[in-house]
Amino acid sequence: MAICYTDPMIQDIEPRQFYVEYHGLAPRPEDTIFMYEGDAVYVRRVGDDMVFPKFYEFGRKLESLEAQQIRFRYLFSVDEERFFIPDIHNTGVLQVPHGYETKRENMYRVAKPRYLAFAGITALQLYQWYSAHKYCGRCGAETGHSDTERAILCPHCGYIEYPKISPVVIVAVINGDSLLVTQYKGRAIGNRYALVAGFGEIGESLEDTVRREVFEETGIHVRNLHYYKSQPWGFSSSLLSGFFCELDGDPKITVDENELSVAIWLPRQEIPVADSDIALTTEMMELFRTGKAPL
User: DSSP for 75-96?
Assistant: First the structure.
């Protein structure tokens, strides 16, 4: 039976629709342009909302910008709103419109409107991918872009590179009325806990990743794996897959001190009530706390 959770995660932008298909489009005046300085994006506040530059705010026609070697790369659309970044191969300098300042990626966790938070972190993921492939990894030549699909194309050797998405598992291990919770080394904040999580390795199924990550981080064995749901997570260019499972055998925890500062069995009544959040981890912990977990 499907489990419903009412608090939306970052990708839950309904009734708006996300269109990720690539098109070789040029920006229109009302289109949104994500501009970056390192990994920080230019944004301004209007009341409680964040606003990103529109193409018309640059005050110049597309032909004029292209004449100075300033072009734009289409990313995706949300409903009729289209999003672009300056092309990574630009040699001209695009001036930031007045009133915008840089903010780090963590702002997307609380930013409004919510669909722009999702658009922003997804754009950052694509921007980082484009930036990392300005030059061909095979021959070192400056790359170009396919005319028909989202792919980096080397004009010298023909090498094609597609966006990479890393598989990650999020694991809620249940032991009766307790949940296995963790805090990562160097990132512990009060009583805020996480679940066991980790990247899939070459040759592994997601289920094998669950078993390996739980054992490596805590020394625990698990059984009765139950897939819950997935979440695109642009913060780490990942696709998260959430699993609930049960303890198999000895509950004694052996903490991997290279990864974690804390790993404990936390009784249901001691799990902190979730604040408004965007993450699959928080949703899964809240399901267990409220007795709605699928196991």
Answer: EEEETTEEEEEE-TT--SPPPP
Helix (H, G, I), strand (E, B) or coil at 31: coil
Delimiting residues of CATH 3.90.79.10 domain(s) in the chain: 166-289
Task: State percent of the chain over pLDDT 70.
Answer: 96
Quick check: 263 and 182 in contact, CB under 8 A? yes
Buried b (16+ CB within 10 A) or exposed e, 19-55: eeebeeeebeeebbbbbbeeeebbbeeeeeebbbbbb
Q: How far is Cα 280 from Cα 290, in angstroms, rounded to an integer?
A: 15
Residue 148 backbone zone (phi > 0: left; psi -120 to 50: alpha; other: beta): alpha
Cβ proximity of 220 and 263 under 8 Å: no
Average pLDDT, the chain: 93
254 neighbors 148 (Cβ within 8 angstroms) = no
For residue 43, pLDDT over 70 is answered with yes
Tell me how far apart the alpha carbons of residues 64 and 9 are, in angstroms, rounded to a whole number.
41
CATH architecture of 166-289: Alpha-Beta Complex (3.90)
Give which of 209, 191, 167 is closest to 289, Cα–Cα. 191
